[in-house]
Design brief:
Number of strands: 8
Shape: globular
CATH topology: Rossmann fold
Pfam family, one: Methyltransf_16
InterPro entries: Methyltransf_16, SAM-dependent_MTases_sf
Mean pLDDT: 87
Largest sheet: 5 strands, parallel
Length: about 270
């Protein structure tokens, strides 16, 4: 697990975030790449629909940590995520997974059932394009290629962590026997990503998360998580997942470089 991001060289990449719309569902535009002062546009953008907290709970909106992680994925996607199997856990509105799907061979975007439709909406909104329409055509050939990859790689899958004890193992056994599984199960992945997954001090939730990671991560895989390291569940997660008698994982912690925090500020705490 990498708790936070390592500084890997300098970058002239800029980012901007602007909220569009109000009410039950809002759309946020997150810009990446060089900013054109003349057109007042960034060279690349992601569009994310948010939901009301009543309908979606904590998965309703973009968390600051997810925006920061997406900046990392965007910058190093070709180097780290390209042609790999990736899974986002606790995806919420799915910004990180949507971005990773541009590079991955397969990207599973996972969360609870009530978030599925909105995650599918956001994946489709960011992968669809029409080269005959000035409003929806891709700004560059590279973006076009990435969106074409998204259409093949992006897969929204329901994943309730607590099913890791019963339904998921049963489904995996059924798949191994060539039977139709009781639920869809992702393949093992080389990279698993998440933002603020260990924010809770509930040990049952952290235990389920660790078992999910251990079940779906490839033998030589990496779990990348970004969070404020004073979150309630962090110490228990670290103690247990590094325990030689349990999971025996190796953890490396890096402080987020200021360039990922953004000029506009995200409100992310300095402990990140």
């Amino acid at each position: 697990m990498k708790n936070n991001r390592q500084r890997i060289g300098e970058s002239n990449i800029n980012w901007v975030e602007a909220a569009l719309g109000i009410g039950k569902n809002r759309r946020k535009t997150v810009g990446f790449g060089a900013y054109n002062k003349k057109t007042k546009e960034y060279e690349d953008e992601f569009y994310i629909r948010e939901m009301s907290i009543i309908d979606a709970g904590i998965g309703c909106a973009l968390w600051d940590a997810a925006i920061i992680m997406t900046r990392y994925i965007y910058e190093f996607g070709d180097l780290i995520f390209k042609d790999r199997k990736v899974m986002e856990l606790g995806a919420g509105v799915a910004l990180c997974g949507v971005c990773a799907a541009r590079f991955a061979s397969t990207c599973y975007i996972t969360d609870l059932p009530h978030l599925m439709d909105n995650m599918k909406f956001n994946l489709k909104a960011n992968s669809d394009f029409d080269e005959t329409d000035e409003n929806t055509k891709c700004k560059t050939e590279k973006i076009k290629e990435q969106k074409e990859n998204m259409q093949k790689s992006g897969k929204v899958v329901e994943l309730d962590w607590y099913k890791i004890y019963n339904e998921i193992p049963k489904a995996m056994e059924q798949i191994a026997r060539g039977e139709t599984p009781i639920l869809e199960v992702p393949d093992k992945c080389e990279i698993i990503i998440g933002s603020e997954l260990t924010y809770t001090g509930d040990e049952k939730t952290v235990e389920a998360l660790m078992k999910v990671i251990d079940t779906f991560m490839d033998e030589k895989g990496v779990f990348l998580e970004i969070l404020s390291d004073d979150r309630d569940g962090v110490s228990y997660f670290v103690d247990q997942i590094t325990n030689p008698e349990r999971y025996n994982y190796v953890i490396k912690v890096f402080k987020v470089h200021s360039r990922y925090m953004g000029n506009f500020g995200t409100g992310q705490r300095d402990e990140t």
